[in-house]
């Protein structure tokens, strides 16, 4: 439709009426950012708009950018279009972008989840005419257990390893997942040490007012016997690298929604897999979409054909945008192994 509030452009998702982009993947003059993951927040834009809560993580990842921030729910007028940001529940500072113009309301969700998370504001559904949704885990097989159960499992695994004198190396995305784990595990079990890619994000969370237990960089540890009781958080890119040799005897695990599939864990040759995702599962996607009341839904990334078909079978107008968003990017985006 030529009068759509959001359309596809080579640079990214574009609002013609307001002349701005949402999470563009090529440099643009004005970018509205849903959150600071590398596939949604890229360098090179002239001006950025994001939620206040995202400021520290955005600056940590992108450096000195021309950043305007807005509180959740605060209206910002861009060329006559009212834009407001609303909690997405994905990671710290994540936001849905609500666009209102000429009596129409569109909401671009970015990435989101409905499960509770102590490190970010919970998802708030926004009533709209058109909802732009992800579908990273848009298959019926993906159904998450309560996070408290997952954190209890991680803590029990860590405690068992500590009792046996083994390090517990838990691979997880450096931004979002690592901090969620830190806030959820039993920090009294032993010391927590982190990869050099994780600690700057921990500092950004703390600067944003999020309480996290004490952590140390792996490279700062002088007493190597400490590793025998430690929980070590590292990005997936560190797996199988020389960086791992310092831990001696260790057990390794990966925390991700992809661990729902046994084959994913086998391919990584891990001791354990913990199913913990910062994206909505299949029931969560359905619940979030229904809560918007939208009669038209546009799917951006994930299991797009499955979600589009499911929506159409329920009488909604559904189609897709071809984007460069994703989840697997985080394996590479967190960088090569470093101290």
List keywords for this structure.
single chain; about 350 residues; alpha/beta; Metallo-beta-lactamase, Chain A; Rossmann fold; 7-stranded mixed sheet
Task: Provide a descriptive summary of the structure in words.
With 339 residues, the protein is α/β, with parallel strands linked by helices. The chain folds into 2 domains: 7-141 and 278-333, Ribonuclease Z/Hydroxyacylglutathione hydrolase-like (Metallo-beta-lactamase, Chain A, 4-Layer Sandwich); 147-274, Metallo-hydrolase/oxidoreductase (Rossmann fold). It has 8 helices and 19 strands. It has helices at residues 55-62, 147-163, 177-184, 199-207, 262-268, 282-292, 304-313, 329-333; strands at residues 7-9, 12-15, 20-22, 30-32, 47-51, 67-70, 75-78, 81-87, 95-101, 104-108, 130-135, 167-171, 192-194, 216-217, 231-234, 250-255, 272-274, 296-302, 317-320. A 7-stranded mixed β-sheet has the order 7-8-9-10-11-18-19, with helices on one face. It has a 6-stranded mixed β-sheet with strand order 1-2-3-4-5-6, with no helix packed on it. The protein has a 6-stranded parallel β-sheet with strand order 14-13-15-12-16-17, covered by helices on one side. Strand 7 and strand 8 form a beta hairpin. It is globular. The termini are far apart. The model is unreliable at 328-339 (pLDDT under 50).
